[in-house]
Amino acid sequence: MNVLILGGTTEASALANALAERRIPALFSYAGRVAIPKAQPLPTRVGGFGGVEGLAAFLADNRITHLVDATHPFAEQMSRNAIAAAKQSGIPCLALTRPPWAPQAGDRWQRVAGIEAAMVALSGPHERVLLAIGRQHLAAFAAQPQHHYLLRLVDRPDASLPLPHHSVVIDRGPFTLEGDLALLREHGIQRLVCKNSGGDGAVAKLTAARQLGLPVVMIERPALPSRHEVHSVKAVLAWLAHAPAPETERGV
Ligand code: 3Y8
Ligand code: NAP
């Protein structure tokens, strides 16, 4: 058995620890989006594979027997490539994901279908907005320059940002309720924009917004092709114990 974990989430890290503890041969993969990704207890590679063909070649060259896509629900391209490359390679593939967040009593969510729709939702007069979507999709919000944006980024930006009025905090999660309440209060935040990432690593800002009665523009997840999905490390371990390895591994 030789497992490839496509990582970058809290759940991927938990899975990596579980496989390392059980001495199950595995590799961990990051895209290379941030300067210093969290260290993992597994041999780790960083960078793209080169599309579906590159991933299929990697699977073959490294004699991967099981592919676990534990990427973030907004890592749409990686997940599509994983499905295609696993099918092409005849290798079992499983997605480890977390259920989307659902609004609770007291929440003031405006649910939108994507980044552009979130930008349109900010068409009102000046507000102080926590734009908690990271770095990659900030340019869309230049169309709403009237707001003051609070940006939470993993790395300090190395170039000027496309938003005229903004403040930056450098932080990587998982985040805490105490910390996010303080952040919203200190910056006088009046509205939040975030992705429906699910999981526990970034939910604190939603609990804080509920307690402060703040509206949230919630960007819903991109649609993905149907695939075998589980929501726990335990379920992945059970799948690994029973999923048939490819023929090459069975020596037939
Ligand atoms: C490089 C690797 C762990 C994993 C921790 C989770 C939790 C904290 C919440 C906010 C939202 C955001 C962002 C966020 C969260 C966890 C998880 C999660 C959101 C790291 C990591 C990598 C990345 C990439 C980075 C993106 C950015 C997104 C910041 C590691 C820390 C906003 C997504 O500068 C950039 O280019 C950043 C890019 C993709 C989204 C974007 O478009 O900018 N994550 N985040 C991964 C790689 O190279 O393969 O160091 O841990 C991982 C984590 N980020 O093990 O503890 O599981 O979701 N990451 C979002 O959800 O909205 C922050 O601020 O409230
Ligand atoms: P994406 O748009 O779906 O992927 C774009 C390309 O990046 C992929 O086609 C692949 O390149 C490469 N890539 C993505 N994830 C990879 C991985 N784990 N290992 C190797 N290559 C990877 O991805 P993204 O949304 O930028 O996310 C990148 C990473 O950040 C992922 O690990 C994801 O789990 C993590 N992350 C993302 C978010 C988010 O909001 N998007 C939040 C938290 C964590 P090739 O085609 O060249 O193979």
Short description:
The chain has helices at residues 10-21, 51-61, 76-89, 115-120, 177-186, 204-212, 233-242, 247-250; strands at residues 3-6, 26-30, 44-46, 66-69, 93-96, 108-112, 128-132, 148-153, 166-170, 191-195, 215-219, 229-230. With 252 residues, the chain is α/β, with parallel strands linked by helices.
Q: What's the helix and strand layout?
A:
Blueprint: E1 3-6, H1 10-21, E2 26-30, E3 44-46, H2 51-61, E4 66-69, H3 76-89, E5 93-96, E6 108-112, H4 115-120, E7 128-132, E8 148-153, E9 166-170, H5 177-186, E10 191-195, H6 204-212, E11 215-219, E12 229-230, H7 233-242, H8 247-250
Parallel strand pairs: 1-2, 1-4, 2-3, 4-5, 5-12, 6-11, 7-8, 7-10, 8-9, 10-11
Helix pairs in contact: 2-3, 5-6
Residues 8-10, 13, 30-34, 37-38, 72, 132-137, 152-155, 172-175, 194-195, 197, 199, 201-202, 205 line the site of ligand 3Y8.
